[in-house]
Design brief:
heterodimer; A: mainly alpha; flat; B: two-stranded antiparallel sheet
Chain lengths: ~140, ~500
């Protein structure tokens, strides 16, 4: 890619990642949440891949790490749901609800959002990576 | 006891992601985890069935997160659900054991078992959920896992079949989704019991027929009833044999027939118009598909056409709407899941040993593969309806029910379909197992022990399946029939159970 694209990417990619994390963490307070934030996180890595090529992005998150993190995200979500059994019911929100509209509130909802964010973020990244690898092997083959 | 219900989803879901996480690093982890989890789910479902038959009102309702329906998602276990759940767990357990050896021929066993487990999770979810949108989500989980599994061999033919299946499956999902959206717009609720309650007081002359047609097309596509059957004959033969057994054995029944029964009997309410359509589609399926099956030389393709035909019997029985017809339909549903998965496992065993499943290539396999030959004979006689195997009793009940309710033409069609089925399985026996053994197959050995074990176990159920009609097993079938016949009283029964 051209110098302009690379420079702009270098400046913005951190901000995009940060914005994704913000959307995930404020999922219970404002529009957005685990899925939307996860997509933005994935886009920051996709952005990196578009500007600097596959290897730069894979150096940050390898495909193996992506697939492991995806499973961990799903298991985390299931774990948060299972936590409810301590209070007597599946998916029961047993953690302290805190004060409304504060960051640390709403019990297990932010934890679920984080789990979904991890799962969706690395999941989308892995899909994009798979498409890139397929395209490359098609050209070589 | 009610706390067990969510575990039918939790266990397969957790297993799926544990396998994808640890399967790469720990040898044999995938195989051990999948057999353990399916055995546990089977044990839980049987214990739930025993418990449920001892309760008075035969229904258990679980409130997820403690939210009372209609505000939260509820899981409902009634006679019909537990009947389907036992069937799904039984078949998926034996198929999982079979796959332990069978999947050695493919690479990446952990990925296979991850998808397998997700598919089981989706099917269990469809069966136990009491929420219409939740049903759609689980339906998508099961469908998407099955699209990937059909393409698991990643050869050109498999990818093409999977693509076709994915397109047709997505069209079906769209119909179902639009149907749910219209129903939600009309009733302002997604809880099945609550929808049924609202529909009983709020009438409309155009929304319900439209929604009913959408659901009929959507679930009909998933069940592969005859005008919507084209994808099945490609998709089911292309998958690995153990997955063909799952798809033909239980997936089309859970996604198609069970959802159809749930929507038409419990939510919308079965009018004579819907029942007539179901009867007609069922009869069309059982005749058209069996005629198409007669001319097939690919063993798995032949079996796939027979799946369409046998689903026709099930839908015909249920479409009759009489207690006897529904009993026959549900009993045939159970029997078909057993013998069709056994037949597909047999075809997988032939493919595993010989590397081909073309009936023109094989002959005389009874000499080198005695277990496969004998179990295949049992399953063939079951599907053709020869006494005393289980398929005979269910077909007999369906034909009796047709005569009892005055539909002599449909009864005659069912008899003709059964004779043609017999003809086509005599062809399988003749070309695959009887005759002279070819020299190039002389040194082939019978399949490994795990595969033999599941085939023998399923054959055992085929032989003794008929005792389901006798006490004390009869209770299990009767509860399922009662749950279907209850119709839209489903809503009051569910709300009563919630109130307790």
């Amino acid at each position: 890619m051209s110098l302009i694209v690379k420079t702009i990417t270098r400046l913005t990619v951190g901000l995009i990642l940060l914005f994704g994390i913000y959307i995930i963490l404020h999922g219970h307070l404002s529009p957005g949440g685990g899925f939307a934030g996860g997509v933005i996180v994935a886009l920051s890595f996709v952005h990196l891949m578009l500007a600097f090529g596959k290897d730069t992005a894979v150096a940050k998150i390898s495909s193996n790490l992506a697939s492991n993190l995806e499973s961990i995200g799903a298991l985390m979500f299931l774990g948060v749901a299972l936590l409810g059994f301590l209070g007597g019911s599946f998916f029961l929100n047993i953690l302290g609800k805190g004060q409304s509209f504060k960051l640390f509130s709403a019990g297990s909802i932010p934890l679920s959002n984080i789990a979904i964010g991890i799962k969706v973020g690395v999941g989308l990244f892995a899909i994009f990576l798979a498409l890139v690898i397929l395209e490359k092997s098609k050209k070589e083959g | 006891m009610v706390n067990i219900i969510p575990f039918f989803v939790i266990i397969p879901l957790g297993t799926a992601f544990l396998i994808s996480l640890l399967g790469k690093y720990v040898r044999h982890f995938a195989g051990i985890a999948i057999s353990l989890s399916s055995a546990v789910v089977l044990a839980l479902s049987i214990s739930c069935a025993v418990y449920l038959s001892s309760t008075a009102d035969k229904i258990l309702v679980y409130k997820i997160g403690g939210w009372v329906p209609p505000f939260g998602i509820s899981l409902v276990l009634d006679g019909l659900s537990i009947f389907m759940l036992v069937m799904v767990s039984l078949v998926s357990f034996f198929v999982a054991v079979y796959s332990l050896s069978y999947m050695e021929r493919y690479t990446d066993k952990p990925k296979f078992f991850t998808l397998f487990s997700l598919m089981v999770c989706g099917m269990n979810g469809i069966i136990i959920t009491g929420d219409l949108f939740n049903l759609f989500v689980f339906l998508e989980i099961a469908s998407i896992a099955s699209y990937a599994l059909v393409a698991f061999g990643t050869e050109a033919e498999e990818l093409e079949a999977s693509f076709k299946y994915a397109i047709m499956g997505s069209v079906a999902s769209c119909f179902i989704f639009i149907g749910i959206a219209f129903l939600y717009g009309f009733t302002s609720t997604l809880n099945m019991a609550d929808i049924a309650r609202v529909l009983s007081v709020k009438h409309s002359s155009y929304v319900l027929p439209f929604v009913g047609t959408l659901f009929l097309m959507g679930f009909g596509l998933k069940a592969a009833l005859v005008p919507f059957h084209a994808w099945l004959a490609d998709a089911h033969p292309s998958a690995p044999a153990s997955i063909s057994a799952m798809l033909s054995g239980i997936l089309i029944k859970t996604l198609g027939v069970y959802a159809l029964i749930r929507v038409f009997f419990s939510i919308i309410g079965s009018t004579q118009a819907y029942l007539s359509v179901l009867m007609f589609l069922g009869t069309a399926s059982l005749l058209v598909a069996v005629i198409l099956a007669l001319s097939q030389w690919d063993l798995k393709r032949l079996l796939a056409y027979h799946s369409i035909s046998q689903i026709g019997y099930v839908v015909l029985g249920i479409g009759l709407g009489t207690p006897l017809g529904i009993l026959g339909g549900l009993f045939h549903l159970f029997n078909h899941s057993i013998f069709k998965s056994l037949l597909f496992l047999n075809s997988g065993a032939i493919d595993y040993c010989l590397g081909t499943r073309d009936l023109k290539e094989t002959s005389g396999l009874a000499k080198i593969m005695p277990v496969t030959a004998k179990t295949n004979l049992i399953a063939s006689m079951s599907i053709a309806g020869i006494p005393p195997f289980n398929g005979f009793f269910s077909k007999l009940i369906i034909i009796f029910a047709c005569i009892q309710s005055g539909h002599l033409g449909y009864g005659l069609c069912a008899v003709i379909g059964s004779i043609l089925t017999l003809a086509s399985f005599m062809k399988v026996q003749k070309y695959a197992f009887l005759g002279r053994l070819k020299d190039k197959f002389k040194n082939i050995k019978e399949v490994p022990a795990a595969m033999r074990l599941s085939m023998l176990a399923l054959a055992f159920i085929c032989v003794f399946g008929g005792i389901m009609l006798l006490m004390p097993f009869r209770v299990f079938l009767d509860d399922a029939v009662q749950a279907v016949l209850r119709g839209t009283h489903y809503s009051s029964v569910v709300f009563e159970a919630v109130g307790k």
